[in-house]
Write a structure and sequence with these properties.
The protein is of the alpha/beta class and about 375 residues long. It has 14 helices and 13 strands. The strands form three sheets. Strands 2-8-7-6-5-3-4 form a seven-stranded mixed beta sheet, with helices on both faces. Strands 9-10-13-12 form a four-stranded antiparallel beta sheet. Helix 2 runs antiparallel to helix 10, helix 3 runs parallel beside helix 10 and helix 4 runs parallel beside helix 5. It starts with about 25 loop residues before the first helix and ends with a helix.
């Protein structure tokens, strides 16, 4: 009999979908013969990493033969000072994705449930499904997470509610009143996980300060990342701010050297480069306004965003993703995000935005 590892795999894995990151420039080149592509699909910082982070990585290379600090002590202490929370409340992970996995490993049993918006970032559901848990999906209302409906969706097996603010893939946020409503109505033994991967891009002055809520609410877990505004997506560093007992549970299922020495040093340097963050935020605001004007001129609907991407309606161009791809511009197809009839466009630098504008004008002009 031919060997088939699928017969040995855990039942939970048999129908588990594989995360799809979207097309890369290399894939576009192979499939369409397009050699000069711009990627505006993965919400990466078009300015790249902080120069201080690059230098830190170069210096750290001389110690690449030595295992990294398993506790990420220097980075946790720096985050503690920045956020105003004790270092014992911070867990650093191999990207925020590992944090979601660790929460699932530590707290979800088979047939437990999490409550999520629909659509939202897919890693939440994938982490739950890996443990045999289920995701109760609550449809968005006008592109926003429906807090009352998410509260109504909770059942006896609900262990976690996952909020994403700004929400990937729509760019909308959870208000302070909505966060208070969720925390005020949440059962005592349910964790509220607030994913703030894009929070550094938020320009809304009324956006709630998650750390202020965390300091009085032990059930709140706030996750953030160095992959977005800090430009370190290729090094994978994320972190959770959580109650010490939550952190202790996740520590038990975490790999001992989960964050590399290079990643730790880069994140520490990036955290200290406030000027790079300021430039990144300013460039994002400038690009956002430019793309808003472009979409409005071309009669294309879009969802106003608090992140570094914009959800755009296909409108008269049902094959907009494909048309842009053939023009050498890679965006994220809405079908893959649970939003058919849309594309998600990362706000690029001037050159990338130029390419997008040229492509869209060509499409609108019948090109």
């Amino acid at each position: 009999m031919e060997f088939d590892a699928r017969r040995l795999a855990r039942e939970e894995l048999r129908d588990l979908p594989v995360y799809s990151p979207g097309k890369s420039p290399e894939e576009a080149a192979r499939e369409y013969g397009i050699q000069d592509c711009v990627k505006m699909a993965s919400n990466e910082n078009p300015l790249g990493p902080s120069p201080l982070a690059v230098e830190a990585v170069k210096r750290a290379m001389s110690m690449a033969h030595v295992y990294p600090d398993p506790n990420c002590t220097k980075l946790r202490e720096a985050l503690s000072r920045r956020l105003g929370v004790p270092a014992e409340c911070i867990l650093v992970g191999h990207g925020a994705d590992e944090i979601f996995d660790l929460l699932a490993y530590a707290f979800l049993d088979r047939d437990d449930e999490i409550v999520v918006g629909d659509p939202t970032f897919t890693s939440y559901e994938l982490a739950a499904l890996t443990m045999g848990a289920k995701a109760r999906k609550v449809p968005l209302r006008e592109y926003r997470q429906d807090i009352p409906a998410m509260l109504d969706a909770m059942g006896a097996r609900t262990k976690m509610v996952m909020l994403c603010s700004p929400l990937n893939p729509t760019g909308t946020t959870v208000s302070g009143g909505e966060l208070e409503e969720m925390l005020g109505s949440l059962p005592r033994d349910v964790l509220l996980v607030l994913d703030e991967a894009y929070v550094e891009y938020v320009s809304d002055p009324d956006h709630p300060d998650a750390m202020a809520y965390f300091n009085r609410e032990p059930r709140l877990v706030v996750t953030r990342t160095f992959s977005k505004i800090y430009g370190l997506a290729g090094l994978r560093v994320g972190y959770a701010v959580c109650h010490p007992t939550v952190r202790e549970a996740m520590e038990k299922v975490k790999l001992p050297f989960n964050v590399s020495r290079l990643a730790q040093e880069a994140a520490l340097a990036a955290l200290g480069d406030e000027e790079h963050v300021r430039r990144s935020r300013k460039a994002n605001e400038r690009g956002k306004k430019r793309l808003y004007r472009l979409f409005e001129e071309l009669g294309m609907g879009y969802v106003p965003t608090q992140a570094n991407f914009i959800l755009v309606k296909n409108g008269s161009y049902p094959d907009l993703f494909e048309r842009l791809l053939r023009s050498g511009v890679i965006v994220r197809a809405g079908e893959a995000l649970g939003l058919p009839g849309h594309v998600r466009v990362t706000i690029g630098d001037e050159a990338q935005n130029d390419r997008l504008e040229k492509a869209l004008r060509g499409i609108a002009g019948g090109g």
